[in-house]
Amino acid sequence: MARNKYTGDYRLIEHFDEKGRVKVTYEYIGEPYRFIQPKEKVEREKKLCLAAAAAGWVLFIAALLPHSMAMKRLWIALPYAFCAVPLALLTEQSISIYRAQEPLERRISDQLENHYPARLAVLMLFSGVAAVLSAGNLLLGSGAETGDAVFLVCSSLLYAGAVTFFRRRKWLKTGRSA
Length: 178
Prior knowledge:
This protein is mostly helical.
């Protein structure tokens, strides 16, 4: 049976509510974690992560709106469609990052150290592949339309945003509290 690696970080507390029913809550008893960077920079980065997630969705949808040959070619459309998965996960994580208050739990610290960069890397892969294939499609001139240029710009900007935030991940580094 698989066991959650964070189970030992919590203590279950049972108590009775006003109606006499047993309520179970949990309390974090693990080591506290903190952001390494100054609070002002972390707060700014939290807001930027949230804004970047929203901008990512705008770019993702904007590429799909105009009529383009890129969306008619499975070898371009498929990698781009897969961008939605890491983008959704990054959006959820950006909301979690924005809400995170110090001291952080180990679970949240692990997500910031491991999951966040991995999701950005997957987004870079899919959007980069879609951008390169779209550029190749435009260069070959095989029935390209105006929407193809929009698709190329949006997929390239999505890639550039993922690269930028991958390089900025140091602003969200965490460490154990002393």
